[in-house]
Write a structure and sequence with these properties.
Order of helices and strands: HEHHEHEHEEHEHEHHEEEEEHEE
Bound molecules: N,N-dimethyl-L-histidine
Structural class: alpha/beta
Largest sheet: 8 strands, mixed
Shape: globular
Helix content: 25-40%
Number of helices: 10
Strand content: 25-35%
Length: about 325
């Protein structure tokens, strides 16, 4: 039997990033998934985005939580001992408001932040335990579903799951319902979900939030190419692409794209692959859906939750929904 010798690809070629890049850049139109944003540099750029004047999302939600934390926590506890779980907690900068309210209500609280980034969780633990000694922080390094499963064993009392920051908006409507259903599947009737969603508003405000004057969001978007260059030995020239934010009225979403400024070819050496771009062709890197009350309530209901209460800022730019597992 004669052996056929196939060209050898490096081990990285079967990694999640390689699979994502291979599939996304051979699709028409080209896409790359938003999880690729969050390497170390991308996570730092996202933190910088949350502090931008144009990116109203984080400060508006923080203001809602600051005003209503006591109400939210006592509605979720319903007179029982409450523990708090947070999906995609990151460094948990807004969570202190709710933990503080839980300490006020019941004297102490256990907080389970779930995130894939161990360093972000350690940062959250160190800060929260220094600021709020009555909070026991039990970090869970995992994705949402697996993390919730780990947290479920042998528990007593009520659980409040936080899914804030409008992270749900980065999923398609169908996937969002699946994510919520996954959460619901790990809860008992009476446990609650606190869901933060960014609402539909003036298009100019939305576009500015995703294309800020200082260019931080542009660098965040472009970082995907830098990451692919580093991890897959590619030769994207970020200067030959332009960051683009678009409002898609039909789907009620902001889209982020990277637009090729010329006809070009890019080599992705770890995949032994060449990718052609025509002038003006884009890679679609993110959707950020913007919601109405009706849409959120419909998704919660389909996932097995019943709306209890909701809170917004005065301009109705952002809403926080408390829903109970039904
Ligand atoms: C994480 N996520 C909710 C952000 C958003 O607003 O969709 C990600 C982001 N992309 C650009 N700016 C912020």
């Amino acid at each position: 039997m004669s052996a056929i010798s196939l060209p050898k690809l490096p081990a990285i070629a079967s990694s999640p990033i390689a699979v994502e890049v291979l599939n996304g850049l051979t699709e028409h139109p080209k896409t790359l998934s938003p999880w690729l944003f969050y390497d170390e540099a991308g996570s730092r750029l996202f933190e910088a985005i949350t502090e931008l004047q144009e990116y109203y999302v984080t400060r508006t939600e923080r203001q809602i939580l600051a005003e209503h934390a006591d109400e939210i926590v006592s509605a979720a506890a319903g007179g029982r001992d409450l523990s708090i779980i947070e999906l995609g907690a990151g460094t948990a900068t807004k969570t202190g408001l709710l933990l503080n309210a839980a300490v006020g209500l019941q004297g102490s609280v256990t907080y389970y932040p779930i995130d894939v980034s161990e360093t972000a969780l350690e940062e959250a633990r160190t800060r929260l335990e220094a600021e709020l000694p009555e909070v026991t922080v039990e970090p869970i390094v995992a994705d949402y579903t697996e993390g919730m499963r780990q947290n479920g064993a042998g528990r007593a009392g009520r659980r409040l799951v936080l899914y804030i920051g409008s992270s749900i908006g980065n999923f398609s409507p169908a996937d969002a319902v699946e994510v919520l259903r996954g959460v619901r599947g790990q809860l008992l009737p009476g446990d609650c979900l606190l869901l933060g969603t960014d609402m539909v508003k003036d298009t100019k405000l939305l576009l500015a939030a995703y294309d800020d004057a200082a260019g931080v969001t542009a660098r965040f978007n472009m970082n995907m190419l830098v990451r692919i260059n580093r991890e897959l030995d590619a030769n994207f020239n970020p200067q030959m692409f332009r960051h683009q934010a678009r409002w898609n009225e039909q789907h009620s979403r902001i889209e982020m794209h990277l637009e090729s400024l010329l006809a070009q070819r890019v080599a992705i050496r770890a995949l032994d692959m060449q990718v052609r771009f025509s002038l003006g062709e884009t890679i679609h890197t993110e959707n950020s859906y913007k919601f109405t009350d009706e849409r959120v309530v419909a998704s919660l209901t389909r996932a097995g939750f019943r709306l209890r209460q909701q809170w917004s800022d005065a301009k109705k730019w952002f809403t926080v929904f408390l829903a109970a597992a039904s």
